[in-house]
Amino acid sequence: MSGFRVMAGNGCIGSGFKLDSLRRGVSLKPHVIACDAGSTDSGPASLGSGTPKLSKEACKRDLRWLLKARDTLGVPLIIGSCGTSGRDVGVEWMLQMAKEVAAEEHLKFRVATIKSDQDPSYLKRRHAEGRIHALNPAPPLSEDVWDNSHVVGMMGTEPLEAALLQGAEVILAGRASDSALFSVLPIMRGADAGLSWHAAKTLECGAACAFVPAADGMIATIYDSWFDIEPLDLGARCTPRGIAAHTLYENANPFLLTEPSGVINTEHARYEAVDYRSVRVSGSRFVPASRYSIKLEGARCNGYQTVVMGGIRDPHIIGQLGKLLSQANVYFAARIAELFEGKLRSSDYDIHYRLYGRDGVLGSVEPRHDEVPWEIGVLITVTAPTQDLATKIATMVSHVSAHLPVPEYEGIISSIAYPFSPPEIERGASYRFSLNHVVFPDNPLEMFRTDFFEVGS
């Protein structure tokens, strides 16, 4: 090969990029443009609710410029994990935006949508066959998980390759391996699989592995025995340490990076500076899996939440806060049983205090646990089966918490200062991950559904 060029628009559709960077990328004539649009990094809410993390305005702005760049170059544009979670509704959301941009910019292209929502009956059958295995860590697999969770499968390169072979110029995919978006076309064109996957893994977050990290684009050129990588912004640069360190990102093992079809082995990879801005990587290899697997991600509603925020700046209260809150929780349990008899069991709701300034981030593993802060931020989270019940409980909790009985003071005091009135803030539905498993399908395509559309005038 003389060099296969893969361009990443940025790390995530909607996070933005510099137009000068994109223009430079176009001038370098990449053979494919790819961009991730989602992740589970932000937690289970987008998967559980189907609501994208980023706004339509932000995503449409990035999509507009990437579609225009694709049109200028005449190369494929591949976007994966549409709508943050990769749910079918996210793919439809991105397709609608693409149609709007095509009409506004007078663009024309053949688009493939690849959907990754999973049918509960399929998952139940595979589970009964013993073909669904837990990853570590994984939540307990309850009997009702299949019917009460929203589940997506994380596709590899194969559904993307099938769409490209059928003439797709733009691919809008559901949940997908980030690296698959960038590796599929170079591998199709004969590039080394190890180098292609490793370059893809490095490109997936855009310029996040550049110095200084930014929401911007990157480009990799894959040769027979190495790949070169650099940021599109001429004011940014890559370093061997920064590129090598990116193999640590989202991986338990920095040398073995698992994909549906195999493992990227970077144990013997070599990272060298080509010049001040670019890095050369060699020595990566791809080891095919003995059994093809698809990762399953599932989320389900965990109730509804109302939160209360406040602050404490009194040494007498801070010094005995653990004891005070323990006493308050005993009172809450009795009071809730009295007020909501027949509606709530103690296992139906949760009252949680998070104390920022004392164990708020690391909790019980905080190494400076014995230090006494002079100020603490308090986040109270009440979770219940309905929003109405969560708020009713929260009004009681906020009132009692504001007047904790402190022995050093006679009479009533204000123990927590609330910045808002009323202090209770309704968060709405709360979600939790219910699956972190893999399924072993008969073939890489059976879990995904592809449709084609001619878009534009």
Jot down its keywords:
single chain, 457 residues, alpha+beta, 2 domains, six-stranded antiparallel β-sheet, 28% strand
Largest sheet geometry: 10 strands, mixed
Based on CA inertia axes, which overall geometry fits? Answer: globular
What percent strand?
25-35%
- Our measurement of the CA-to-CA distance between the termini, rounded to an integer number of angstroms, reads 36 Å
> Structural class of the secondary structure composition?
alpha+beta
Number of strands: 19
Over all CA atoms, what is the radius of gyration? Answer: 26 Å
- The number of distinct helices, counting runs of at least 4 residues, comes to 13
Contiguous uncertain segments of 5+ residues? none
Major sheet: order of its strands? 12-13-9-8-1-2-3-7-4-19
Taken together, the total number of domains comes to 2
Architecture overview:
- The protein is of the alpha+beta class and 457 residues long.
- It has two domains: 4-116 and 155-293 and 440-456, no CATH class; 301-433, Alpha-Beta Plaits.
- The chain is built from 13 helices and 19 strands.
- It is 30% helix and 28% strand.
- Strands 12-13-9-8-1-2-3-7-4-19 form a ten-stranded mixed beta sheet, sandwiched between helices. Strands 5, 6, 15, 16, 17 and 18 form a six-stranded antiparallel beta sheet that branches.
- Pfam families: AtuA (PF07287).
- This is Acyclic terpene utilization AtuA family protein.
- Residues 94-182 form the Acyclic terpene utilisation N-terminal domain.
- It comes from Dyella humi.
Concise description?
This protein has about 450 residues and is an alpha+beta fold. It has helices at about 20-25, 45-50, 55-75, 90-105, 120-130, 145-150, 155-165, 180-190, 195-205, 240-245, 315-320, 320-340, 385-400; strands spanning about 5-10, 30-40, 75-85, 110-115, 130-135, 150-155, 170-175, 220, 225-230, 255-260, 260-265, 270-275, 280, 285-290, 295-310, 350-355, 375-385, 425-440, 450-455.
